[in-house]
Amino acid sequence: MAAADDDDELRCRAAIREAFGDSSDSDSGKPGGASPPRSREQWRWEAVAGLRGLWLCAAFLSADEQSRLLAAIQREGWFSDELNQAMRFGDLPVWIVELSALIHEAICVGEVDLGCGAELTDEDEDACPLPSDLLWREPLFDQLIANRYKPGEGICAHVDLMRFDDGIAIVSLESPCVMHFSRAEEVAVCDALESGQAASTKIPVYLNPGSLVLMSGDARYKWKHEINRKPGAQLWDGMELEQQIRTSITLRKLLATPN
Ligand SMILES: O=C(O)CCC(=O)C(=O)O
Ligand SMILES: [Fe+2]
User: Fold this and answer.
1) CB of 248 closer than 6 angstroms to any ligand 1 atom
2) Where is this region: Disordered (predicted)?
C-alpha cells in the first residue's frame, strides 16, 4: 500500500474511533472501552401505529455515542449564532459514513415491534423498518442536513423534496421534541368517515435524544412532518416539553439525474 493510502487509512480509522470508540478495531480484544457490544435487544424498532412506513428506534445511540457525534459536529464548525443548518452532498465526512453503517446494522439486527395498531398488508414490506431495495442500495445515503434548533424554533410541515429517493433517516440529539405527521393531501371528509379516520389526523411522535426515525413509502410521500416548538405545541403525556437546543441529522439519497 502506498504511503498516501496508509495516511488515508489511518485518518479514517482515527475519525471512526473518535466518533464511535474502538469497537471497529476487530483486533483490540474487547469491544472498545465505552461502546458496549451490539445486540438485538438494544435496537428495538417500533412501527408507528396508523402511519405506514414510519419506524422509530428510540435507543439507537448510547449516551456516549451521542456525545461523540455532537463532538464530531462541533469539530466540523458548521454552526454559529447565525448559521443553524449545514448541508453536504456526495462524499460525506467519515463519521457520517460510519453513522450510516450503524443505521444499516441496526435495521439488520434490531428487534421489530409491529405494535397492535400497525396495518399488516404485505409481510415483507411491513415487517422491516426499511424495504430491502432501499436497505441494500449503495450508498445507503449520500446527502446530509444537520439542523440546530434554538428553543422555540422548529420546522414547518413539509414532504421532503422529490429529488431525494425514498428512505430517509433522522437522528435526534441533545433534547427531545414532538414531531407531528399529517396527511399531505387532506383526506376528503366522506372518505375519512368511511375509513374511520379524522380528516385532519395529526400523529405525534416523541423523538428523544439518541433516537432514529426512518420514513419510507407512505410516511415519506403521503405524510408531512413538522416540529412546532411554539409555546403550547410541544405536548407529550399531557406535559409541555422543556425547550432546549436540539440538533438533528437527516440522511437521504439523491435520485440519479438523467443525463
Ligand atoms: O430536524 C428534524 O428532525 C427534521 C428535519 C427535516 O425534516 C428536514 O430537514 O427535512
Ligand atoms: Fe423533512
Assistant:
1) yes
2) 18-41
